[in-house]
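Sequence, please.
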């Protein structure tokens, strides 16, 4: 059988509000061409993010009802804690209300002026928390990861030669940790191989640098390892995850991704001294260590979701669905990141809109065009999100100019995805009419 079917039945539905093209043009102008300022009711297909937008299962909703709301020592926390311990092998689990809160705590403790956090590619909230501490985030993505149109199995890998050179140049004492993002969100949702993680761990061990995993999409990454890396085809996803985390000294996770939850996150650690510092900060920012800014019902839903996400029928459907949309766009010659990633389709806006200079943000221009054409909301992953300015105010562009269409888990059906493909192809065929944009106001942190 070649037809992809959803490994679930739909039990509850939410209506979509339809708008006309003329209405969307007015809505977008009123939002200053910023998709984050569009009211969700005015979006037909919302692919802005896969974070917190998943559909929870009936088991998770049942867990919501039995959540223990005790301030301290909640049984829901212990369910949450044991689930994460079983998956990661890390004994210390610190809940937070979402991933960026976990990052804020971690980098407030380990960051600071003159320090560097090295990674394959840091996502924007991670980088913001690093830089807010005074440290600097450094991306050391493998060469093939910077070439959207050229397929490679593990384009999320760290450039290990560059990593070692950077450590030698800056000094290990100035690098409090290395963080590997799995899958590599900003790099096209591309996976990291187990071999690369082993190599990074070896380098980190050599220089005494802790290795952390940004585990937001760990299950999707593990499934790619099963599909693409020699020696893993017969291993289960929990077995692959166990090995992956065995190389890490700690991890952060937004449970709004691969745990299907609408809110939540955590830090998992092996180092008790670091844990004490993190918990001290947790108490004054998030809450007591056995709830950390979350309701007991949320802890329960996360624990259940972390188990469900490792079920192979779901992962097969999830990865194949992203591949399905990618293949439809490739057949129409739309330039997309290849191969398909784990949670999103990434359009190469630089290749699609060569007439728009990077100073006029081709990715953001494409996001606007997709919304006007079909009410599809995506997000720019390029120089608007990651660009910087030099001392004279000139733009230092990002490595790639991408538009991410992140697919919420268990939310949209194949007909929705077919509609998205039609919208993108229509925009592609009229791409020469798209004009660039300029920034009128930019917040210091957004």
């Amino acid at each position: 059988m070649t037809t992809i079917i959803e490994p679930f039945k739909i039990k509850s539905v939410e209506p979509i509000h339809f708008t006309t093209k003329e209405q969307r043009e007015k809505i977008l102008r009123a939002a200053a061409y910023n998709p984050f300022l569009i009211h969700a009711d005015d979006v037909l297909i919302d692919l802005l993010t896969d974070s917190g937008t998943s559909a929870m299962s009936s088991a998770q909703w049942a867990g919501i009802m039995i959540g223990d709301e005790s301030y301290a020592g909640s049984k829901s926390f212990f369910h949450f804690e044991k689930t994460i311990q079983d998956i990661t092998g890390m004994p210390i689990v610190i809940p937070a209300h979402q991933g960026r809160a976990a990052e804020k705590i971690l980098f407030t403790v380990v960051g600071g002026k003159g320090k560097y956090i090295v990674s394959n590619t840091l996502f924007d909230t991670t980088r913001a928390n690093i830089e807010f501490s005074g440290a600097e985030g450094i991306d050391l993505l493998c060469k093939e990861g910077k070439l959207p149109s050229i397929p490679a199995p593990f384009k999320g890998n760290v450039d290990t030669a560059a990593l070692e050179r950077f450590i030698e140049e800056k000094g290990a004492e100035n690098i409090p940790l290395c963080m590997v993002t799995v899958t590599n969100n900003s790099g096209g949702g591309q996976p990291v191989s187990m071999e690369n993680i082993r190599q990074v761990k070896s380098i980190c061990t050599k220089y005494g640098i802790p290795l952390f995993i940004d585990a937001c999409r760990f299950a999707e990454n593990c499934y790619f390892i099963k599909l693409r890396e020699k020696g893993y085809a017969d291993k289960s996803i929990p077995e692959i995850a166990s090995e992956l985390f065995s190389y890490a000294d700690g991890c952060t996770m937004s449970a709004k991704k691969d745990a299907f939850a609408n809110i939540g996150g955590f830090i998992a650690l092996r180092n008790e001294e670091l844990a004490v510092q993190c918990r001290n900060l947790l108490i004054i920012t998030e809450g007591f260590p056995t709830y950390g800014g979350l309701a007991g019902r949320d802890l329960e839903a996360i624990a259940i979701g972390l188990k469900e996400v490792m079920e192979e029928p779901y992962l097969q459907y999830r990865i194949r669905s992203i591949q399905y949309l990618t293949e439809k766009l490739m057949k129409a010659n739309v330039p997309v990141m290849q191969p398909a990633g784990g949670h999103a389709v990434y359009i190469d806006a630089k290749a699609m809109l060569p007439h728009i200079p990077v100073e006029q943000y081709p990715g953001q221009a494409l996001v606007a065009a997709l919304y006007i054409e079909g009410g599809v909301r995506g997000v720019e992953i390029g120089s608007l999100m990651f660009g910087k300015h030099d001392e004279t105010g000139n733009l230092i562009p990002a490595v790639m100019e991408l538009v991410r269409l992140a697919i919420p888990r268990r939310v949209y059906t194949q007909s929705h995805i077919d509609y998205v493909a039609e919208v993108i192809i229509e925009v592609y065929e009229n791409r020469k009419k798209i004009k660039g944009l300029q920034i009128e106001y930019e917040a210091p942190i957004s």
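The domain at 58-308 is CATH 3.40.640.10 (Aspartate Aminotransferase; domain 2).
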